[in-house]
Every structure is written in C-alpha cells, then in structure tokens.
Write a structure and sequence with these properties.
Elements lengths: L20 H16 L2 H14 L10 H15 L3 E5 L3 H4 L2 H5 L5 E5 L16 E5 L2 E3 L4 E4 L8 H4 L4 E4 L5 E2 L2 H14 L9 E3 L4 E2 L7 E2 L8
Parallel strand pairs: 1-2, 1-3, 3-6, 4-7
Antiparallel strand pairs: 4-5, 5-8, 9-10
Helix pairs in contact: 1-7
Length: 221
C-alpha cells in the first residue's frame, strides 16, 4: 500500500511542539513539586524495578557508606584498572582517595581530552559513573552529553557501577523529556547528539534469538 500524501499536513499539529517557555516552566514547577513528595517511596520503587532489570542495587545512607560499597566492589572484583567519568558526584564521594591504598589504578575519562597515559581504558575491570536521571518506571539510568563527560566508563568495562542521587529520580519518560526540554530553553539551546539509556546489563538476542548478556557493553551493572 502506498502512503497517501494528498491530504497535506495535520490541521492540528501536536500541541506541545508549540508550547511557549512560560508554559513549559509552569509544567516543570508542577513536576518538580510532585517529585519532592513521596521521595522514599519513589526510591524504593526504583530499586525494585532496577533489580528486575538486572541491576545489583545498593542503597547507601550517605557518602561514607557509598565509598565503603565501592571499595568492597573493587576488592570482590579484584579490579586492577578502574575508569570513571569526570562527574560532579565525585566531589562528594572521594573515590580516588579511597582507592589510593588499594592495588588498583584509577583513570578519569574526559570527553574530547587526550590524557598523557599508556593505559588502555579497554582493559578496565570496572567503570564508575554518575548519572543525570534515573527513571523509576523502567529502572533506567540516563547519562546526558555535556562537557567533559565520556561514555567510555559506562560502555567499555565488563562491570558498570552507577551512582544515583535521590534528587535525580523521575517517575517516567514524560518527566525526563519535560526536564530535558526545559534544560534546552535554560541553556544554550544545545541538546547534544544522544542520551545514554542504561537499563541493566547489555543484552541482545540478535543471534538465533538467544539472549546474550554483555554483548555490546557491561555484563554486570
């Protein structure tokens, strides 16, 4: 069947595409107010869904407990090379200092910045990143493109550890896209070229419809 193109464009285009910034701002305020309520329940829901999607979930009470969990993970993996993103979350969680006394090397991956090192990040045992959002409905961590942030830490190592703050949790994709659109109006009108959605370990069933874990990214998250 051929597409009928003689009817022209829809008479009533998708209304959200014609929203003014003031309309978006009002919706953002309502969304943020909603997300402030029932935050503990939202955290629990995200944790439950994320586990179903294959994440290993640990809920830390603060930076010190988060650091202890990271240290334990490194020791259990016997990780020798760890790469991390250049994310603001590491200002509050001193991962580099913590791992300094362990028999492991930390390499910070910064987008568009060539580091003077002979270490190959492809050989890393563990990648640690922050996130920009976490979607409770799907158990998804979202990393947005921005200055200095490299995708290497979340894609190359066989194990990816993502640090999520409670303030980064949204209910669903509608929340995410609304906040991203508002960021577009608030910033320099540059949305970047991608959003990295991570919903548990990498998996594919392209080959003979057999599920393979870790085919295109980390096998464990």
């Amino acid at each position: 069947a051929s597409l009928r193109r003689d009817e022209g464009s829809p008479a009533d285009p998708y209304k959200l595409l014609n929203e003014e910034a003031s309309d978006i701002e009002a919706r953002v305020k309502n969304t943020l107010d909603r997300l402030e309520h029932d935050r503990d329940q939202r955290i629990s829901f995200l944790a439950r869904v994320a586990k179903l999607r294959g994440w290993h979930v640990y809920q830390a009470d603060g930076p010190e407990e988060a650091v202890d969990y990271i240290r334990t993970t490194v020791e259990e993996l016997n990780a020798k090379l760890i790469i991390r993103s250049d994310d603001q979350v590491f200002d509050d969680i001193p991962v580099d200092q913590t791992l300094h006394n362990l028999d492991a090397h930390m390499l910070v991956m910064i987008r568009d910045c060539l580091q003077a090192t002979d270490i190959d990040p492809v050989t890393a045992d563990l990648g640690i990143t922050g996130v920009d959002y976490a979607i409770a409905e799907t158990g998804t961590a979202v990393i947005a493109p921005r200055r200095g942030i490299s995708r290497v830490a979340s894609l190359f190592p066989p194990v990816h550890l993502a640090i999520v703050r409670s303030s980064q949790i949204v209910d669903n994709l509608d929340d995410l896209y609304l906040l991203r659109r508002w960021a577009y109006y608030q910033g320099d009108h540059d949305m970047g070229s991608y959003l990295n959605f991570i919903t548990g370990p990498s998996r594919t069933a392209d080959i003979e419809q057999t599920l393979v874990i870790g085919a295109h990214g980390p096998r464990e998250t």
